[in-house]
Design goal:
Blueprint lengths: L21 E2 L31 H9 L10 H14 L1 H10 L6 E2 L3 H9 L5 H15 L4 H4 L4 H6 L4 H15 L13 H8 L7 H11 L11 H11 L6 H7 L7 H24 L7
Helix pairs in contact: 2-3, 3-13, 4-8, 4-10, 9-10, 11-13
């Protein structure tokens, strides 16, 4: 999913690189227990207390680590995309026109986290070009190999001074075992974010993308992703939301905010692809 657009703030949707369908570069409102005589209350129109996602089950993964936590699959993404389309008329438009979005999963580990850091505040095409040059220079992108490069060599492959600092800090943190990326899949979302944001250069957007794309957690909405804001603006006709405003809007899609994010990215990229021929012929006017 290379793209010519740039990030503003935390970032934009990640790009697809390499193998097709793979990225390189959520919970329902807890159901309130009702008295026996009371009518079951619907939660966001997706389920009721009598249905499978009870309050206890939805809350349990947040209480403690239970081995590998629930994650999205191609099958569950299709199921929950349809469920959201049945309850949200805007997402229903996307589902009808473009179908289920790709899973867009990414490999866990150092190389992917470094690439996500590179994707901050630049076009994804630029980030990919930088990462590809690094990979060509090193052969294998590992913490040990990154630390063999001088500042001048890092600059030659496209790293800014700031991102060189971030790359070195991440490499050292892994080698000194100050962070265990392999162990993150055993932690609840909040603890994963807490661990990742201890690293220099890793903020909310970067940690959210790692949760959503690498760990495939079902209920993550990346903060500050302007492609998502733009997609919602186009679909809903509402004013383009700020980062905080969009997180409030996204509450309606719990516990599948990661699914909603993929649906919105799918819409954003599909619409861009449709407009591209017109743009190339000089008929497209950027709103």
């Amino acid at each position: 999913m290379s793209r010519p657009f740039r990030r503003s703030g935390s970032g934009l949707c990640p790009s697809i690189c390499g193998k097709a369908g793979r990225f390189r570069h959520g919970h329902l409102q807890n159901s309130v227990a009702m008295p026996r005589a009371a009518k079951p209350r619907k939660t966001l129109g997706l389920v009721t207390e009598k249905q499978s996602f009870s309050a206890n089950r939805a809350a349990e993964p947040q209480k403690k680590a239970l081995g590998r936590l629930r994650s999205l699959t191609t099958i569950s993404l299709k199921r929950y995309s349809l469920a959201l389309a049945k309850t949200d008329p805007h997402l229903a438009i996307v589902h009808k026109q473009y179908g289920t979005p790709p899973l867009w999963d990414r490999e866990p580990g150092f190389a992917t986290l470094l690439q996500i850091i590179l994707e901050q505040q630049v076009s994804l095409a630029s980030a990919k070009a930088c990462y590809d040059k690094l990979a060509a220079r090193l052969g294998e992108v590992t913490p040990e190999n990154v630390l063999t490069l001088s500042d001048a060599e890092m600059k030659r492959v496209g790293f800014s001074r700031q991102k060189t600092v971030y790359a070195r800090h991440l490499s050292e943190a892994l080698l000194e075992r100050r962070i265990d990326l392999e162990g993150l899949n055993r932690l609840p979302d909040a603890e994963v974010k807490a661990e990742l944001t201890k690293l220099k250069g890793v903020g909310e957007w970067t940690s959210d993308i790692y949760l959503l794309m690498v760990l495939l957690r079902p209920d993550v909405m990346p903060k500050g992703d302007i492609a998502l804001h733009s997609a919602w603006h186009r679909l809903s006709g509402e004013a383009r939301p700020s980062s905080d405003e969009f997180l409030v809007i996204a509450e309606r899609w719990k516990p599948y905010r990661s699914v909603a994010a993929r649906v919105l990215w799918h819409f954003y990229l599909s619409e861009r692809a449709l407009r591209k021929p017109a743009r190339e012929q000089g008929r497209f006017i950027q709103p």
